[in-house]
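(Structure overview)
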Amino acid sequence: NAGANKIWSEQAVEIAEKYPIGVWATVGLHPDDTDEKFDYSLYKKLAQNGKVVAIGECGLDYYRIKPDDIGIKNLQKEIFIEQIKLAKEVGKPLIIHCREAFDDLLEILESNRKLLNNPPGIIHFFTGTLENAEKLLEMGFYFTFGGLITYNRDFDETIRKIPLERIMLETDAPFVSPEPFRGKRNEPAYAEEVAKAMAKIQNVGFEEVCEKTTDNAIDIFKIKA
């Protein structure tokens, strides 16, 4: 369960704590929630919970703002850098949300390389270019893909260039349901459809996709299956 602001992060932790195994949480402040002040000490306390496996969603999102709205862009950057520092301090990977902001994202990550963990984290719901992917791969990042790849072919070439060892599956629930569930509320069980699409794009077996992407999640989040 991914956090996106203070309330959602607290709720994600509460839900994860109800289950001894199988459910974990992330905590962070999403770039669309910059009306909330980033409370470093609060998020640090949440992040130190044993059920929290990553910091995020955090990052940059320019989709809903005007190109010349420098103030919001700078605020997103400042909050993102604070969460990079937090991830370093607590020793947990980042989960990065990036939409129409990859140039600035890469600039920030390059400028703050010394603060990145190894591995540094995950680019969630990746929609960047092949060139973006190559630069992020070089930095050690992993990538997640969701329901979009079951019906949109724009990212097939990029996905084929990313090693399966750096890929995980996601839902982005309740949004972006895969085929054949488009238009319905998304849910974790539908990740199976994403695995089928990934197997077809990468030209590997369905079982291999399931096994490898699960192993990747266990490794980067340091969890027990």
Strands lie at 25-27, 52-61, 94-99, 121-124, 142-145, 167-169. Residues 50 and 162 are 31 Å apart (CA to CA). The mean pLDDT is 97. The radius of gyration is 17 Å.
